[in-house]
Amino acid sequence: MINKKEFLLDSIIRAYIEHLEPIGSGQLKTMYDIAYSPATIRGYFKKLGDEGYLAQEHASSGRTPTTEALKEYWGTRLNIKLDVVNYNKLNLHAKQIGLTVFLKEQQIEVLHRVLNIENLYLLLEFSSFSITIKYNSALDKFLNDMCNLEAFNVLEIAKQVGATELFVELEKYLFNRDFEIINIKEFLRLCVDYDLDEIDISKFLNGNIMDRIDPDIYFHGSEGLNQILPHGYIGIVHEIIINNKKFKMLVVGELSKDYEYFYKGIV
Question: What is d(CA 264, CA 267) in angstroms, rounded to the nearest whole number?
Answer without folding.
Answer: 7
